[in-house]
Every structure is written in structure tokens, then in C-alpha cells.
Amino acid sequence: MTLPIFLLHNGSSALSSSAAPEKASRHLVYIKANSTSCLTVRSEKLRVKLLTHGQNRIEEMAAAEIPSVKLMDGTSIPVLGLGTWKSKPGEVKAAVEAAISAGYRHIDCSPVYENEAEVGDAIAAKIKDGTVTREKLYIVSKLWQTYHEPDDVEAGLKVTLKDLQVEYLDLYLMHFPIGFKQQSGHTSARDANNQIITTDRDYVDTWKAMEKLVEKKLVRSIGVSNFNEKQIDRILENCTIKPVTNQVECHPYFNQKSLSDHCANKGIILTAYSPFASPDRSWASPDEPKLLEDPALVAVAKKYNKTVANILLRYQIERGHITIPKSVSPDRITQNKHIFDFKMEPSDISHIEKLNRPDGRVVLMSFCKDHKYYPF
């Protein structure tokens, strides 16, 4: 009979490991019936040789694993995740299933994306079929702005937990520093001109309520999204639990260098959303430059025999960022993983940095630009 082996996304095994980490470059694992063995893996490629009882039946498996980085609270997060913003219901379930099957473990969600229930169905399906366990997934969601009142924070989380069909989140982010008046649930109240009504609730108060979610073990880590440098500092001056990440728009046309450096100096890792500059956004102008077609990036991609998307994602990784590209195409989801088998030369990184534009931001939330907590 064949002895089953469980390969874990963090580079360990259900079997005990005794090999020295520094020798973990290319190891074969031999597993015989009625015996145990050690497993040492390399994050880029895993080769496994299985020997069955009475025969030398060999199965080789190559798996490109997504590396993880340690956050300031000691937890680890995969540096590449699947974004679900703008993934339509009816499409997102298959996309999440394809991503998990392809080796993704980091799934980024939000209730305002209006697809968390379908994401939850996908997660449940992949756990049920044995592809992954909940413990090996890294699930992220966000507190929407209608739940900024401290007494509402836990209720907002519990809606997400129910939809995602999980008992806890690995990371919970405050989606935006400005609160919205709640009409019901995630629906914002609007004025006579159909404009969203904001509140003056201090995001520090909201943060302190989020800290209680960690204490209750409903979430493992907490962070922020769309916060500027001063807002980050204000959280740090008033918090008990520090934010582990700031998730913001980031791509070569809007490289966030100052914010990235500021967060890094505070031990906060930047997570880049819209790493392709959201080419499918409905509000894009026809005459806007298209990041994925930029000649400079096309040239770099040709140099490394990669896609422009690969270059854009690798650019974030080389800067020490986490990134969460969105796709519902299984082929693109898999292709986006092909960024850990090469490194770009410093001169190429510098060249990409020069693509930054003063008008490069594409997510503005300009309807609340006059609010005292508007971050942009």
C-alpha cells in the first residue's frame, strides 16, 4: 500500500523533519509502507518520490510554492494572494477553487465586494475535497465603513465569518479611515442627492474595537487599508496592537515609495492592491496610458521571458511588498504564480520606479474628499 504524505504550504510536512534547513535545496522523499521518513522542502520546487510496498512505483511532483513573510506579530502571510475585488458572483467561486488548487493559500476578501458568500462556498468545497485544511489557508477580509461605530465592529466581522463559513480570520483590515452612516448592514445611508452620508467617528476608536477581536480570537492579526502616513502614526500612538499591514493601491504608475518606506520603518508591510492599475475599471478614460502595455514594461518582460503581469508582480515582491492580483481566469491565476523563479536586476527595478506619475492613482473615493479623515 502507499503511505499518504501531506505537503504543507509552509514548507513542512505532516511527517517529522530532521534534515538541516541549509541542505533543503533538492531532496527526494522515500516513503515505504510501514515506515516513516523525513521531508525537507524548498519553497520553489518540491520533488517527491513515493515507493510503494513490493514495487518501485515512482511519482514525481513539482510544485511551485508561494513563499510567506513574517509579520511583526509573529504570524506569517503568503506574499502572493488572490484578490476578489470586482470578481463577479457566478465567477468568483470557480476562481477561488482554481487558485487553491493551484497552490494559493492567501485569499483577500471584503463584504463590499458582494461575493463573500460565494468565496465561502469555494473555501468550503476545497476543504471538503481534501485539497487544503482551514489551518493552511490565510483568509483576509475587511471591516466595511458602515460598521465603524465601536459597538458595531464585532457584528460586521460576524457577517463576514458567516458568509466565508469560517470561525476566524487570519487578518482583518479597516477598509478605509472614514465611517459611513449605516442604513442596514453593509448598505450606506444616502442624502437627498443620493450621496453617501459619512460620519465623524474617529478611526482610532474603531481600531480599539478591532483590537478586542484579536483578544476574543476571532481574528489573528489586524491591519489597515487606504491609510496615509499621518493616520498610520496616529494609530501607532494610540494602539495596544499594532497594524501588521497597510493595504493600498500600488503599481509602477503610482509606486507609493514614500508610504512604503514609512510603513517599513514602522515594521508594517505594505500590501499592494491593483498591481496592474485596475485595467478593467469602469471609470477609466480612453486616453489613459495602459500599464500592461507600457513599452518599458514590455521590454523588461521580454528580457526575462515573462509576461508583463509577472514583471508587475515581481516588482512588488522585490520591494518587500505583499500583492493580491485579481483574476477569474484559471490560466492567469496560475500564470501569476510564475514570479518566484527569477529576480530582476537593480537597474530594471530603478527603470520601473521612474514610471511613477503624479496622476497615477486610480482609486480616489473622491466623493468624500472634503472629510477630515480623507487619506488621499
TrEMBL record:
Protein family per UniProt: Belongs to the aldo/keto reductase family.
SUPFAM superfamilies assigned to the protein according to its UniProt record, in alphabetical order: NAD(P)-linked oxidoreductase (SSF51430)
InterPro entries per record: AKR, Aldo/ket_reductase_CS, NAD(P)_OxRdtase_dom_sf, NADP_OxRdtase_dom
Keywords assigned by UniProt, alphabetized: NADP, Oxidoreductase
Residues covered by the NADP-dependent oxidoreductase domain: 80-356
Coiled coil feature spans: none
Superkingdom assignment: Eukaryota
GO molecular function annotation: oxidoreductase activity
UniProt lineage: Eukaryota, Metazoa, Ecdysozoa, Arthropoda, Hexapoda
Protein name, as recorded: NADP-dependent oxidoreductase domain-containing protein
